[in-house]
């Protein structure tokens, strides 16, 4: 790298630091910088002197969760591994097969394949016992664990070994798709004077769906 490029980079760096220092000086910036320096020093010392190799990612996750726990229950950080849950909570959408599941005994069963979604199109039926997902046993797994295994990017395949009709085992390959859970799965008139709108979740489209159902009623 030639000297002119090096000098240009240094000037840009000093300019950014200068602008940043102005902004910080108008608030509690010094404490923020000091805290960040302390965290950096802790990481550095752990990497150099801790008896075992440290898992930096896990330490960061623990530190962030502990820090935000000091604030309130509503300030949270969604890690990359939980992005599907965040997307489902805010939009009602996720990458998966489109089926309702429930735990019964040692296994999780398909409770309802959503109409028009990959699970139904691939032949999955209510009552199917999920034995394996992609070759991994689902025995003694929770519903959330099975759900996590079924979710994935749109267009990817997931292989299920299911049991149907007392001992009949069958392998079903399902191509995941973008699943949108309806915010208002039902609306209608209970009688001449009372209308009913069922709201499942508060997502970004929930208010528009409620309004549409209300206007229609």
Q: Could you please describe the fold and organization of this structure?
A:
This protein has helices spanning 3-25, 29-49, 56-69, 83-91, 118-121, 143-150, 206-216, and strands at 93-96, 99-104, 107-113, 129-133, 136-137, 157-164, 168-175, 177-180, 186-189, 195-198. The protein is built from seven helices and ten strands. By secondary structure, it is α+β, with helices and mostly antiparallel strands. Strand 6 and strand 7 form a beta hairpin. Mean pLDDT is 81; it is low at 3-19.
User: Helices and strands: which structural class?
Assistant: alpha+beta
- The oligomeric state is single chain
Main sheet, how many strands, which sense, barrel? 6 strands, antiparallel
Number of strands: 10
Rg calc: 26 Å
Q: How do the strands and helices of this protein lay out in sequence?
A:
Elements: H1 3-25, H2 29-49, H3 56-69, H4 83-91, E1 93-96, E2 99-104, E3 107-113, H5 118-121, E4 129-133, E5 136-137, H6 143-150, E6 157-164, E7 168-175, E8 177-180, E9 186-189, E10 195-198, H7 206-216
Antiparallel strand pairs: 1-8, 2-3, 3-4, 4-5, 4-6, 6-7, 9-10
Name the features:
disordered N terminus, 7 helices, 41% helix, two-stranded antiparallel ribbon, alpha+beta, 217 residues, six-stranded antiparallel β-sheet
Brief description of this entry?
With 217 residues, the chain is of the alpha+beta class. The protein has helices spanning 3-25, 29-49, 56-69, 83-91, 118-121, 143-150, 206-216; strands at 93-96, 99-104, 107-113, 129-133, 136-137, 157-164, 168-175, 177-180, 186-189, 195-198. The chain is built from seven helices and ten strands.
């Amino acid at each position: 790298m030639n000297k002119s490029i090096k000098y240009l980079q240094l000037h840009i760096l000093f300019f950014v630091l200068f602008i940043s220092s102005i902004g910080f000086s108008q608030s509690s910036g010094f404490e923020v910088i000091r805290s960040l320096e302390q965290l950096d020093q802790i990481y550095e010392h752990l990497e150099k002197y801790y008896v075992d190799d440290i898992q930096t990612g896990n330490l960061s996750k623990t530190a962030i969760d502990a820090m935000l726990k000091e604030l309130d229950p509503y300030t949270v950080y969604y890690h990359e591994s939980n992005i599907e849950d965040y997307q489902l909570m805010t939009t009602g959408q996720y990458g998966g097969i489109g089926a309702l599941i429930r735990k019964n005994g040692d296994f999780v069963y398909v409770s309802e394949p959503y109409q028009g979604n990959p699970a139904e199109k691939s032949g999955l039926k209510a009552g199917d016992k999920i034995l394996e997902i992609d070759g991994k046993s689902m025995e003694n797994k929770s519903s959330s664990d099975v759900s996590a295994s079924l979710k994935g990017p749109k267009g990817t395949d997931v292989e299920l070994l299911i049991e149907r009709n007392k001992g009949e085992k069958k392998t079903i390959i399902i191509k995941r798709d973008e699943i949108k859970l309806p915010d208002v799965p039902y609306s209608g008139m209970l009688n001449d004077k009372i209308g009913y709108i069922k709201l499942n979740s508060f997502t970004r489209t929930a208010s528009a769906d409620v309004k549409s159902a209300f206007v229609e009623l």
